Amino acid sequence: MDQMNTQKPHELLADTLASEMEAVNALIQTRMASKHAPRIPEVTAHLVEAGGKRLRPLLTLAAAKMCGYEGDDHVKLAATVEFIHTATLLHDDVVDESGQRRGRPTANLLWDNKSSVLVGDYLFARSFQLMVETGSLRVLDILANAAATIAEGEVLQMTAASDLKTTEDIYLQVVRGKTAALFSAATEVGGVIAAREAAEVQALYDYGDALGIAFQIADDLLDYQGDTKATGKNVGDDFRERKLTLPVIKAVAQATDEERAFWVRTIEKGRQEDGDLEHALELMAKYGTLEATRQDALGWAAKAREALEILPEHPIRQMLSDLAAYVVARLN
Amino acid sequence: MDQMNTQKPHELLADTLASEMEAVNALIQTRMASKHAPRIPEVTAHLVEAGGKRLRPLLTLAAAKMCGYEGDDHVKLAATVEFIHTATLLHDDVVDESGQRRGRPTANLLWDNKSSVLVGDYLFARSFQLMVETGSLRVLDILANAAATIAEGEVLQMTAASDLKTTEDIYLQVVRGKTAALFSAATEVGGVIAAREAAEVQALYDYGDALGIAFQIADDLLDYQGDTKATGKNVGDDFRERKLTLPVIKAVAQATDEERAFWVRTIEKGRQEDGDLEHALELMAKYGTLEATRQDALGWAAKAREALEILPEHPIRQMLSDLAAYVVARLN
């Protein structure tokens, strides 16, 4: 993994797919326009121009290119997934009452909740028009299912977040909604438009799904053991926000009665005191749940890499493999 | 129009299509379920069970039946348009900070804004899955375009509502977004799945579009001259909420400098005083804008009825024609 010291895998992907990404950006610009409602491009541009890694459109472009796709629909679908992602960010910020996103004030703060809700709806509708233009019912089916998984996962997260009955299965469903469903749809549609055989399309789905899960578990783990400078988050934010993530779910599953009472008070009831985070970390250490969570993340990353094996040999395949290694490399 | 004294046209439609509407309701029940997120059916049921006239699904069923359609997709599409409508109501209540809808407390009040935003997103995704199941790219194209028109109209309404530069054209675009786009999509898809020729499909679109516009203009007019008991609204609500609707837009277009200053103060700046509503009504009377607005509504209703003329002779055709007459009958 020494090559990572020079260029990160997603940066290498972005360089390799630079001309396609330019077409995606141009399409996004065109499609976020609105003749009479300038608020729409204003709000959208605020988020889109803030950048981010553009991981999701890159995944679609990468999957299509690796599968030998020669047409233009991959550009439309890459813009589609970026619009869906941007729409969910706009709605998430309203739901979370966030004030910052990607180091900038959120749209709901700069404008208002109304703008975030309605512009999000507009981007959903725009993404829907774009995918219809591909004329592929299979693509539409995949993205409709992804949209439902995303929305259901969000509702589930809202209602299950502080509920100690939340199992690892439900956590996984939330994680698929938050991250993996759009990753897997992004890679799968790349194979579908390239008309690859079923096993390869399944492999692309599996790669995106496992990559997304590894990515989100790593994120949740770093919340408890990350380097504040590197992650931009404070250790224990999820604990303070009473979010049940994998390290806590694993500790709750093994808790004694007394420990369970601690979790009920701090997470379910949210009555937190000084020293509670430290005690939570002690309980996680007692049952080795941070290490177990790390092993889960590594397992999903390995699954993502394995899924790639049946796909065509291509320089992009190596980059996607390195990307899966990279999302968990920061856990070592 | 004497038959209306006994049964209203939408009630007659509902009776005629009762077995299909039952299938639509059963499908809605099934598709709003969520294994792990009970909040979804709770919130949805709150709105769906509050009833309303179910005008949009009725329009889809009516169009399909009138066109001789024999399959099951009209039930799916009727559920689709009802899901889209319910989703927009949920988001509208967040945007408008409403406390009441159909005489009951709104979901954002009973639960919270988060639930309204996310359950709305879930219903959009569900509607999208349902329409994909019909396997018709034309249906998908129509509904994707309707979704974009709805969202753009909502943003436009938010930003143009109190802006005196708003023209009748922009008002019409807002009205299409609020009401007519889903009406016209609802009727058009009925003709598309029945595989009717282009002119008939266009006529169905024209009917829904004109019906929706007549309906909304009538609503906006009744805000200034309605019977509070019949409409459930107070005269002048739109004025107090600084919403530019057609009677005011027409008065602003003809205003003297002094009158313009009045509109700037009361609508643009929102600095309203006692007696302002009365003065606004005087200005509308001076230029006859309430009567001109009524003529517009009657014109759109006539257009809706004319559009039906090339469609197959069928008892439902008469009910649709009566429905168009009915939405403006309350203006006489």
Automatic annotation (TrEMBL), chains A, B:
Origin superkingdom: Bacteria
Substrates-to-products reaction catalysed: 5 isopentenyl diphosphate + (2E,6E)-farnesyl diphosphate = all-trans-octaprenyl diphosphate + 5 diphosphate
Alphabetic keyword roster: Magnesium, Metal-binding, Transferase
The protein's Enzyme Commission number: 2.5.1.90
A GO BP annotation: isoprenoid biosynthetic process
Entries under SUPFAM superfamilies matching the protein: Terpenoid synthases
GO molecular function terms listed in the Swiss-Prot or TrEMBL record: all-trans-octaprenyl-diphosphate synthase activity; metal ion binding
The protein's enzyme class: transferase
InterPro entries named in the record: Isoprenoid_synthase_dom_sf (IPR008949), Polyprenyl_synt (IPR000092), Polyprenyl_synt_CS (IPR033749)
Chaperone is among the record's keywords: no
Task performed by this protein: Supplies octaprenyl diphosphate, the precursor for the side chain of the isoprenoid quinones ubiquinone and menaquinone.
Family per similarity comment: Belongs to the FPP/GGPP synthase family.
Name under which the protein is recorded: Octaprenyl diphosphate synthase
